[in-house]
Hints:
Layout: H1 2-16, E1 20-23, E2 26-29, E3 38-39, H2 53-60, E4 69-70, E5 77-78, E6 81-86, E7 92-93, H3 99-107
Parallel strand pairs: 2-6
Antiparallel strand pairs: 1-2, 3-7, 4-6, 5-6
Amino acid sequence: MRAVLLLAMVLLLSACQSTLEARNGYWVDSAHPAQGARPRIKVVVIHYTAEDFPSSLATLTDRNVSAHYLILQQPPQKNGAGVIWQLVAENQLAWHAGPELLARRNAH
C-alpha cells in the first residue's frame, strides 16, 4: 500500500512539473537541484539508497551529499518511458558521502 501511495505521489508531482526532458528512451526531471553541486566534474554519480523516495530526495539534495541522478527501482512512466531525477547537472561535481570517496577527495 505504501509503495502504491508513493508511486501515486510521484506520478502526481511529475504531472505538475514542467521540468521533464525527454532523453534517449527515458525522461529526466531536473526540478530538484542539489545544494552540494560544484563545478569540475570527473565522474557521474548515480546513487542507490534503500530509503523511500521522499527521504532519498531530501538526503540527496542536502548540502552534505549529492548525486547526479536518482533512479527509483520502479520508476514512474511517462509516454512509455521511465522518469528519473537529475539532481546535479552533468557539467557539475556531485558529492558522495562514502568514506572511500571522501578519503580520495581529501588526498587531492
